[in-house]
Design a protein that fits this description.
Elements (H helix, E strand, L loop, with lengths): L1 E4 L2 E3 L4 E6 L15 E7 L8 H11 L8 E6 L5 H20 L12 H19 L9
Antiparallel strand pairs: 1-2, 3-4, 4-5
Helix pairs in contact: 1-2
Length: 140
C-alpha cells in the first residue's frame, strides 16, 4: 500500500511501473541499465479515490493525465532504479495529497465607502490633469 494520508492509501495492484533507459548522468551504465521509472496510476478506475478527489486530481495533473484517465509520472532524476522508483511514488503521493485538500469557497466582498471615495478622488485628479493638457487657445 502507498500511504497518502492516514485515511487514504493506494493499493499496490493499482500501480503499474515500467523501467526504461534514462538519459543524463550515469556514464557507460546509462546505455545498459533501465533506471528511469514510468509510474502509471489509473485514476478513473481507482477504488481508493472519491469522485471529488478524482476531479481535483485531473485538474492538478494537467498534461500528465491521459485522455482515458491514467496518470503518468516519469522519474529519471537519480542514477539508481530504486531511488527513481521512490521519487515517482513520492511525487504521486504529493499530487494526490494536494487533490485531497478542498479549496475554500470565495466569499463575495464589496469595496468600502472609503475605498470608493479614494478611487473617485484619484479619478478626479487624473481628469483635471488631463483637462489642463488641452491646446492653448488664441484669445489674445
Amino acid at each position: 500500500m502507498l500511504e497518502i494520508t492516514p485515511t487514504l492509501a493506494i493499493p499496490e495492484a493499482e500501480l503499474q511501473e515500467r523501467f526504461v533507459r534514462a538519459s543524463g548522468p550515469g556514464g557507460q551504465n546509462v546505455n545498459k541499465v533501465a533506471t528511469a521509472v514510468e509510474l502509471r496510476f489509473d485514476v478513473a478506475r481507482s477504488s481508493a479515490l472519491t469522485s471529488e478527489v478524482r476531479e481535483r486530481l485531473r485538474a492538478l495533473a494537467g498534461t500528465r493525465m491521459t485522455a482515458d484517465g491514467v496518470l503518468l509520472i516519469d522519474a529519471r532524476r537519480f542514477r539508481t532504479q530504486a531511488q527513481n522508483r521512490e521519487d515517482a511514488r513520492a511525487r504521486l503521493a504529493d499530487l494526490i495529497r494536494q487533490a485531497t485538500i478542498r479549496p475554500k469557497r470565495r466569499r463575495k466582498t464589496r469595496p468600502t465607502a472609503g475605498a470608493k471615495e479614494r478611487r473617485m478622488q484619484t479619478k478626479r485628479l487624473r481628469s483635471d490633469a488631463k483637462q489642463r493638457r488641452g491646446k492653448v487657445g488664441l484669445d489674445e
